[in-house]
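Tutorial handout. Part one gives the primary structure; part two gives the three-dimensional structure as tokens.
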Amino acid sequence: MAAKEAKEAKEAADKSGRAAAALWSEPEWNFWQTLFLLLINYLALFLFGWLGAQPYPGERAGVVEYLIRGFGGAFVTFALLSLFLRLKKLTPAALGLDRPRFSHALSGIGGGFILFLLAGLSGYLISLLFGEPDTQNFALAVEGSDSWWQLAALLLLGSVIAPLQEELMFRGLAYPPLRKMYGPAGGMARSAVFFALIHFDLPRFLPILIGGFLLCRLFERSRSLWPSIIAHGVWNGLMVAIVVIQRDFLN
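Part two.
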């Protein structure tokens, strides 16, 4: 009886995964609509005062401001995506959020370590060729955190909220119409370039480009957004760990 129930559960999960894949591989939106949604997102952030210069993230006021902007920006993005799905009469499965599986966790964790290594290697080569770039605001905020709750909030933001936000927007929303127009390889390449450009961080263009391509590859291979969300979270989480180790044990 238990074996029969397990088989039925597996068949239901496979059916759910195939249905979700069919939804995102044949999107009911185009890339221009994706760009319009991104424009609305940035406009909302501008109106809230969450774009542009901010207090130095390495100081206490800067850490708090960074957290407000990070969580506030994610809320805006999730609200816009929810409205978009409602207007299109779609479910989150259309963006690749199908039923999570154990295999998604395994591929996501493995992919996260690979991303960390490749992005770190490419960043190191760039620093050798062009010099060390300025420290990212996220790393400065982690360095400047002076309490456990600040570090925990930054870890939550960097390893859970931001990966979910960016994967929904750049893989779940932006990649499917590019894939439909240019095929999997062309879509992944263009999606990665778009992801790197939208960060407005020229010194880190190559690491972000590599990360964007590999995250898209995880999405394409698994037909689910969960592996790329987990990989992105592991990538950012390892960055937090490195910064904390350097701050607390090596300096």
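Part three, for discussion. Residues 11-17 have pLDDT under 50 and may be disordered. The two ends are 59 Å apart (CA to CA).
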